[in-house]
Amino acid sequence: MADQRKKGQEVILQQFNKMRQEQRVFAQKISELKMEESEHKLVIDALKDVNDPKRKCYQLVGGVLIQRTIEEVQPNLENNAAKINALISTLDKNLDSKAKELIDFKEKHGIKVKGEDNLEKKDDKKDEKPVSTGVLVN
Predict the structure, then answer these.
(1) pLDDT at 125
(2) What letter does residue 29 receive in the DSSP assignment?
(3) SS3 label, residue 11
(4) End-to-end CA distance of the chain
(5) 110 φ/ψ angles, rounded to the nearest 5 degrees
(6) Contact in structure between 90 and 97 (CB atoms under 8 Å)
(7) Distance from the CA of 41 to the CA of which of 23, 31, 59, 87 falls in 20 to 30 A?
């Protein structure tokens, strides 16, 4: 009986760890995409300052450097930046739902993570007013 209970707890713990890992993957991918989006915006802003749309520029596509003109590259960059932004917002929603799912799972199974209890206690202590001990130190 105790053996089955322990196996059940192990299964629950494995599910919990899997959910946490999925949440980390979402957060990591969002971070990567935000970096890529900022790079796109940086290039778009640099190209807006150029007055000659026929000027040569180089674009890295799949590891291959391609020579094009600014008028060819700029719409593609703006389109890619918009798609990246849409993907980031979608992944943010997925991350939020995954976080809610994880919290519900923790509450349902009574899972406590090491370190989280200490954070909650510290937050509670911040809210409390300091207690005067009546000692004056000079």
Answers:
(1) 60
(2) H
(3) helix
(4) 63
(5) 65, 40
(6) no
(7) 23
Indicate the DSSP class of residue 58: E
Q: Which amino acid is at 16?
A: F
For 67-128, give the DSSP string.
EEEHHHHHHHHHHHHHHHHHHHHHHHHHHHHHHHHHHHHHHHHT---TTHHHHHHHHHHHHS
- Tokens 């799972």 correspond to 105
- Please report where in the chains the tokens 């300091």 appear, as a residue: 130
* Residue pLDDT, tens place only, 18-64: 999 999 999 999 999 999 999 999 999 999 999 999 999 999 889 99
Tokens of 48: 């807006």
Q: What is the dihedral of CA 72, 74, 80, 86, to 10 degrees?
A: -140
Tell me the two tokens of residue 88. 């980031």
3-class secondary-structure state, position 111: coil
